[in-house]
What we know:
The structure holds two protein chains of two kinds. By secondary structure, chain A is mostly helical. Chain A has a domain at 34-87: 3-methyladenine DNA Glycosylase II, Chain A, domain 3 (Orthogonal Bundle). In chain A, 39% of the residues lie in helices and 7% in strands. Chain A has seven helices and four strands. In chain A, the strands form two sheets. In chain A, strands 1-4 form a two-stranded antiparallel sheet. A two-stranded antiparallel ribbon of chain A has the order 2-3. Chain A is elongated and about 95 Å long. Residues 186-203 of chain A have low confidence and may be disordered. Chain B is of the alpha/beta class. Chain B is built from 15 helices and 17 strands. The model of chain B is unreliable at 532-545 (pLDDT under 50). Chains A and B meet through α6 and α7 of A and α12 and α13 of B.
Amino acid sequence: MSIVSAILVLLLLAMVFGAVLGFAAIRFRVAEDPIVDQIDNILPQTQCGQCGYPGCRPYAEAIANGDAINKCPPGGESTIQELADLLGREVIPLDAEQGIEEGKTVAYIREAECIGCTKCIQACPVDAILGAAKLMHTIIIDECTGCDLCVDPCPVDCIEMVPLRKTAKNWYWQHPEIEVELNRKELITSDKIAGEADRENAA
Amino acid sequence: MNRGLRDFHGGIHPPENKDLSTQVAIETAPIPDKLVLPLQQHVGQQSKALVSEGDYVLKGQLIAAAEGYVSTALHAPTSGVIASIQNASIPHPSGLSGSCIIIESDRKDEWGKRLQPLDYEKVDVSELLKRIREAGIAGLGGAGFPTSVKLNPSAENTIVTLIINAAECEPYITADDMLMRERSEQVIKGIQIIAHMLKPVGCLPVECLIGIEDNKPEAAETLEQTVKQLHLEHEISVVRIPTKYPSGGEKQLIQILTGKEVPNGGIPADVGIVCQNLGTAVAVYKAVALGEPLISRITTLTGRALEHPKNLEVLIGTPIRSLLNHCGLQQIKLNRLIIGGPMMGVTINDLDTPIIKSTNCVLASTSEELPNPTPQQACIRCGMCAEACPASLLPQQLYWYSKTKDFDKALNHNLLDCIECGACTYVCPSHIPLVQYYRFAKGEIRAQEHDHTKSEHAKQRFEARQHRLAEEAAQKEAKRRERSKAAKLRQQKATIPPHNSESESNSEDKAAVIQAALERVKSKKDKTSKLTPEVSNGSAAREEE
Lengths: 203, 545
């Protein structure tokens, strides 16, 4: 008798929990793997395709499915570091097959040579090229991600990638060890020595 | 007035060297042949040039307008011809050049139309704000934040205290000191205007404190006398604070005078305080009461490489070379040229760099005065930097994190609260350029933030484009389907005999005609089927076709 009641109780429990789990599976359903979004947010969104995938999101999906995290040259070291932190993987050097980390560049159209074919406009993933058929095209520098995708389609080779210019606005101090190599005179440290001399004189 | 002063954490006492430049009165610098006016002299958006090459401008004429809210206007400091608008060296640690308006002076120094002087008590506060904006005033203390923005705090913050920063805590600099000694009336009147502007309607006037380090007794006394003469003892109090670097840091001065601490990432207005530099008060006075835009300032020219160090009233845009020559520069002695003080200033290499609105000092130092930095040694974890830090940070930890580029941890240790005063570097027995590490880390963090916002933006644009392309494709597909449908319809119509398309009145006749024809065929069929079944089969089959 007791065995029967035990089985009944267990059955009842199983049904209750099954119902709860079934409800939760529908009610709290996650349509997409949220890790893909997190990875996608780390990637630089150049949509350049250097990783071998057609854009940043497909690569994010691939990473979530186990692909290597070192295939993004525009993101470079810092992106690898962030991805490693997020996914608990080891930091690995950038895969040279996909390219090397270079300084930031923007596309530049030599406007005199442009024939207005609109091929580059179709190639640009972020709509950073302005122009119309048979009219000169130009790059909106602030929107350009430097993905390089407009260079190949150009039939007259009038697009080149130029390094982003350093201005007083986007300039910042380099690592002090590099600054020392560049032989830049540093401030602040030095005033002390004069101070020490003064104090010695006073003493 | 006896106030309970507080102290801030840390601080240092570097040699002052202020007496070098306080021996003689303020002189007016000669007008140079050429003035270089950078379009970016302030925090915020670059001003927009309104003149073009070859234009003749008069003194005080607007030559560049403010672009956006956080920006300032720029005026011609003297009369002359616009020689060019081009890139020229600007006082910036990078040594990069920036876009500048270059004026060739005609030495007549002829004033153009001046702004109408305003009686600050009679006009609206918005009018005063507009005037300050028009006059191109940006903080003269060093950072160069547009004053009109600072004097227009958001409605949520009720301002109860106005602090005038006259601490001038950096060694060598005496510009504010001399200004107080010689032009105390302008100072006080400027402060009155600022206090009036911050006074909420129908409320008590804001408490007004002038914080002066006690190494400037003459200046403090002069100010006190002026306050008495103008019968403002109840509104403005001159407060002497103990000399300690960096008491002139905004947050530090607020802490000394009021005991309040500005929250992490906040501004003084969050605790009901507005802090203004003393020189800015004079500029406000000139703009409002005299209608003069900000075209000149007091700058200290000092250092042992100069024969006659002194304070000069210089036109904004004057190349440093002409000022140094005026003060008797001994080229052989000059080792390093610094804009600002020895603690926080920047080294410059180009003598043609101009004086801008925030240049309070030019320091021509000898190699004995400010020797080149000693090589850095290993950190011995002595903790002296933490004792000296006025922001109560842990410089040692920040150093390790900045050095190894562990920016998340550096941020967790409040790197962004570092005011880059250099106190930690000053006390470091291992000569580690700590502040340089923090500057590097801050720059890197800001660059990363910028990249992130940019990539976010790029993602949005990419997705918008994908969406648009998909929509276009869908539209095309829909159109194609419509076309194919239409084509099918046309085809069907084409198979029906052409007379079918005649007017409707005929259609009934036609139906009758067709009916008759069908009947004819039927009767024929009946006849043939009776004759030979094989043939009838064949014809039936043919008919079915």
